[in-house]
Amino acid sequence: MVQLEVLLQTIVSGLLLGGLYALIGLGMTLIMGVMKIINLAHGELMMVAMYIAYWMFTLMGVDPYVAVFIASPVLFVIGILIQKYLVTPVIKVESILPENQVILTVGIGMVLVSLATVFFKSDYRSTPVDYASTTWYLSDFWANSPIELSVSLLWAVSFFFAVAITLALWFFLSRTDMGKQIRATSQDSDAAILMGINVNRVRALSFGLGAAIVGAAGCLFIPLYYLYPALGGQFTLIAFVITILGGLGSIIGAIVGGLILGVFESLTSTYVGMGWAPVGRFVIFVAALVFLPGGIASILKRKRLGK
Amino acid sequence: MKKAITSALFSMFFAFGAVLAHAADLNLTIPLPLTGKQAKFGEIQKRSYEIAAAEINAAGGVKGNKLVLKFEDSGAKPDIARGIVEKLIDVQKQPIIIGEYTSACAKAVAAVSEERKTPYLVVVSGNDDITQANYKYVFRLNSPNAYYADGVLGFMKEVVKPKTIAILYESSDFGSSGAEEMAKHAEASGIKVLLKEKYESGAVDFKPILSKVKSLRPDVLYMVSYVMDASLLMRQIKELRLDANLFAGGAAGFAIPEFIDNAKDASDYVVTSTLWSPQVKYAGAKQYAEKYKKQFGDYPSYHGAAAYAALFVAKDALERAKTWSPEDIRAAMKATKMQTAFGPVQFVDKNGYQNQNFIPTLALQVIKGQHETIWPKSMASAKFLYPMPKWRERK
């Protein structure tokens, strides 16, 4: 019974973590799909959003979950500006290194980290909300329950926000005209130009959208976690693994990939050792590259086409 | 005549030169992590070094030389710390090296200093190896990791009397040596180690490993972590209602005010070892703590006090040294015997350590949102709270 309790608690934690991972991965995969750029400043953009949420909480008492609606639009604008004034000019230049956009995004990330260190010092910060330690216990609802499970309110709320944002994005991409333009551009940008789509505008828009999504992820994350200028790096890495695992540019792939990674890390923590969780992440990354080059998206595609 | 004038001019020139040389600045560059994850600790120390330097200069400097501090950012990366110190020794000819924070960096710096025969004063790095490597030029101000838990161990033995213990630690030099020592002490005193597991610092979700700990039901959960991990651990322990007779931390993260700020009521009753607290009765400790609080709004942790004291130790050695050659400074360091705000300082060779200063370690407990010294009893600022209530019974 005790073992069952540990297993169930592990899976619950893994799914909740995976939901947030998926949201972090989504933004990167969107930018990847449309522009064929790996945005390595992804985690740093999240850090910027977290500072916005932090300051709004500290100075005005705005709840971090409300800050989603402010930080995301701000990040949207930042994303568009980055695409318009930094990425586009660099892509146009014929350089020795075709990967110069990758280097560019790494550079943007470094600048953001340094700016945050200069302005906000390297203090650790967090937003202690009143309901931070509210937790539901299975035994509260079912007094004689043989096992005890707990779900923290914060994790649950963040998870459901993540699901809602994902659904909204899916609706936007599949149902709206703009969403269709984005998908068309990601499938074949030359054809999209011929169809009269303003590809430059679509690109700016999707960079903005990607930044806004990871900004939302940052706001959902800060009540659970904490904040310091160099925080972005590890989340860029996680987003990168999810993007590869999910299949480059695939939305559904990113969601499934995020959940898989979350549960896999939790199971590794419990049954192999917590120190092995980052190793597990790396194993998944290499395994995806070797055995499933197209990621989860390729499996989904095969199923749909019946091949 | 002309010759006389020239010689007079010459002698004047030299005399002037001597005056200049005498009132020259003593430039000390201190490598510290000022960016990256460990930057918080670098900052506490940087501020404390600066307070000490201001006091030293106000009292006439080091042998009449004005002490000018500079800081270089190592980002807690051993290779960068190594590069900085190579430059300090080879190019700037700095007579003594002070600083660094993480054990990994201190190890790298110690190796360079020993190789280049320049005295190095380790300030807060805990890994035991650093002063066990038979280095002649490496001195350490803080107690080695093996002694950190003494205060907590005393409290455990006399009050908690546990039969089982679980140990969680972060996978750094500091974390693993701290966990290793605790496991050794526990085995030696007949406490069964049920689990000893490491985690990667910066982890988001500790609940999987904590639910495993919960299923093992240890009497004591001992954790060696830096600050934000410590807060997350306690918050998630509360979420899971993981009950133990004692939650104990091995210095670093659990001993600084940010731990309480971030873990909130989940930090109540937590006991942690530390090397120093603002309540200790060493001369100058209280003044330093108040000065720090006045300038930066918070009381410093032991990291700051060690840095503050380190500069006085260096000043003392430089003033006693016959010349500022590495050999003479080393001899002066070796002969150090002084009282600082961090405690008594004397570098001895004992129990396999060389040039090691041993200071008594304390145990703090979080009582009503404040760190209070509870052990050893002679230094206590408050009576310890034990046993602690189960999570379900707390409000």
Number of domains of chain A: 1
CATH superfamily of the largest domain in chain B: Response regulator
| Portion in helices of chain B | 40-55%
Shape type of chain B: elongated
Overall structural class of chain B, as computed from helix and strand content, comes to alpha/beta
Regarding CATH, which class of chain A?
Answer: Mainly Alpha
CATH architecture assignment of the largest domain in chain B? 3-Layer(aba) Sandwich
**Termini of chain B, distance in Å?**
96 Å
Instruction: Name the beta content range of chain B.
Output: 15-25%
Fraction of residues in helix of chain A: over 70%
The number of distinct helices of chain B, counting runs of at least 4 residues, comes to 13
| Greatest interface | A-B, 44 and 41 residues
Total strands of chain A: the figure is 2
CATH topology of the largest domain in chain B: Rossmann fold
Give the overall average pLDDT of chain A.
88
Domain Leucine-binding protein (chain B): 32-357
Signal peptide (chain B): 1-23
Pfam family, one (chain B): Peripla_BP_6
Protein name (chain B): Amino acid/amide ABC transporter substrate-binding protein (HAAT family)
List the helices and strands and how they pair.
The complex is a heterodimer of chains A (307) and B (395).
Chain A: H1 2-35, H2 42-60, H3 64-92, H4 100-120, E1 135-137, H5 138-141, E2 150-152, H6 153-175, H7 177-187, H8 189-194, H9 199-221, H10 232-246, H11 251-271, H12 277-291, H13 295-305
Helix pairs in contact in A: 1-6, 1-9, 1-10, 1-11, 2-3, 2-4, 2-9, 2-10, 3-4, 3-9, 6-7, 6-9, 7-9, 10-11, 10-12, 11-12, 11-13
Chain B: H1 2-22, E1 25-32, H2 39-58, E2 66-73, H3 78-90, E3 97-99, H4 103-116, E4 120-122, E5 138-140, H5 145-148, H6 150-160, E6 164-170, H7 173-188, E7 192-199, H8 207-216, E8 220-224, H9 227-240, E9 246-250, H10 257-263, E10 271-274, H11 285-296, H12 302-320, H13 326-334, E11 338-340, E12 343-345, E13 348-350, E14 353-356, E15 362-367, E16 370-375
Parallel strand pairs in B: 1-2, 3-4, 4-5, 6-7, 6-8, 8-9, 9-10
Antiparallel strand pairs in B: 10-15, 11-12, 13-14, 15-16
Helix pairs in contact in B: 2-12, 3-4, 8-9, 9-10, 12-13
Family (chain A): Belongs to the binding-protein-dependent transport system permease family. LivHM subfamily.
Subcellular location (chain A): Cell membrane
Membrane topology (chain A): Multi-pass membrane protein
